[in-house]
Amino acid sequence: GSPAYMAPERFYGHFSVESDIYAIGVMLFELIVGWRPFSGMPIDVMKAHLNQPLRVPKSVPARLKDVLQKALQKLPQHRYSSAEQMRLALEPIIAACSPYQQVQPTRSHKLETASLSPAHGNASAVAPSAAVNDNLSQPDPDVRQIVLAPEQLQHQAQLATPVHRLWMTPKGCVGLASTEDGLGLWLWADQGLQQVGQLPIPTASLQDAALFASRAVDLSADGMRLAVLQPSNPISNSDALPHFLEGEAEFVANQLSVYSVPNLRPIHQSSLSVDLTRLRWIGSRHLIGTGATLKDLSQPDASEPSLYLLNRRGHSYWACPVRAEIQHVVVSSTHPDRVFAIAQGPQPAAFFLSLRPFRAQRIALAMQPHWVSATQWGYILVDLEGRIHCINRRGRLLAQAQFPLEPGATLQAIAATPSATLWIAMRCVEQTHLVTLDLSPHLPQSLRRL
């Protein structure tokens, strides 16, 4: 077996029923906590199984902690003697937990907070404990006001076609732009501008292509994989496409295609186990999406807006009803298991989500952002009017500015480097100008040191 799940006696060539109980205990620990009890190189894992005491996080309920500690005893005779005995210990704990456990907020608020559900395909799993914090504090009166001028924009490239998405990768800035044949992938690097691939997706119109690119296409942080959501109906169907892009419930995506970059060769295509309206990469192996329902659950709560964690083959194994329409999902640039989600509603708000262990913090926003980018110190939010807000990882507003738009120009796409250099696609007349704007000199000194 895999060293991560092997009982201590297995390393000496001994095997018993209690060895399987130990492996089940490791899997149960991973389902509840989010990681395995022991990790590292194989030799380190072996030593940990043999000698290292088990440490269960304080957030795990006491009754579950007792089950884990008994199943993961070093000596076989101290574990459960059979799977039936372990099942009988777990059954009353599971019965005491609702399949959709409502998390009580620490403060009341109009926008409902996140709650947990078991993973798809594991309806009997015990939902892990979670803490939800609602932060509705007002912006600090000492927020830095940044004055920007057109002279600070650095011209990088120019295209005749609209640019719908921008990503920052180790190789440079990658953009998704309309072409005569569909959507093309472009790279801006030291050697200049070059097209690196073409997606076999027809462009219905400028507006449809922009919405499709913002919701259904995402590039992994390493720039090596492109994920594309596709509905079951052909996306070239002009009658169906607008319904999908407007997020109406009767038309959602249930097909996932993953392409390698730069040649855009199909790596994997599959039907999703959930219906999604948006998709984002978490690292290079997992994705997080927004949707409304799990296909094989009939509970009323299953129709709530939810976040889903998927592997790159499209299988969903974690779900979180958030009871708010999610407009944007951004993964932290410093902590890949932390997510920043923008909620759409009458009062602009956002969620800070920690996935391991699960915690949620709600904050109020001073504007409804249209673009969100992660930096090494927090997030940069930009709305359609060019207002820029810089917030830290706790949601505190640190600085704000107004983007110096040229007369008649419109913003099309924005991305940011971890050091807070903005890459902006700006449409002027019949041309798209790609410019950069370095915000770091204008930020507080404490942030520049991060």
Q: What key attributes describe this structure?
A:
7-stranded antiparallel β-sheet; alpha+beta; 7 helices; single chain; 450 residues
Architecture overview:
Helix content is 16%, strand content 38%. It is α+β, with helices and mostly antiparallel strands and 450 residues long. Helix 3 (62-71) packs antiparallel against helix 4. The longest helix has 17 residues, at 17-33. It is elongated. Residues 98-139 and 233-251 have low confidence and may be disordered.
Across the major sheet, the strand order is: 8-9-10-11-12-13-14
Low-confidence stretches: 98-139, 233-251
Instruction: Note the overall shape.
Output: elongated
Q: Beta-strand percentage?
A: 35-45%
- Mean pLDDT level: 78
**What percent of the residues sit in helical stretches (DSSP H or I)?**
10-25%
How large, in whole angstroms, is the Cα Rg? 24 Å
Element layout with pairings:
Blueprint: H1 17-33, H2 42-51, H3 62-71, H4 83-95, E1 131-135, E2 144-146, E3 154-159, E4 163-169, E5 172-179, E6 182-189, E7 192-199, H5 206-216, E8 217-219, E9 225-231, H6 241-245, E10 253-260, E11 266-282, E12 286-294, E13 306-311, E14 316-321, E15 325-331, E16 338-344, E17 349-355, E18 358-364, E19 371-374, E20 378-382, E21 387-392, E22 397-402, E23 410-416, E24 421-428, E25 431-438, H7 445-448
Helix pairs in contact: 1-3, 3-4
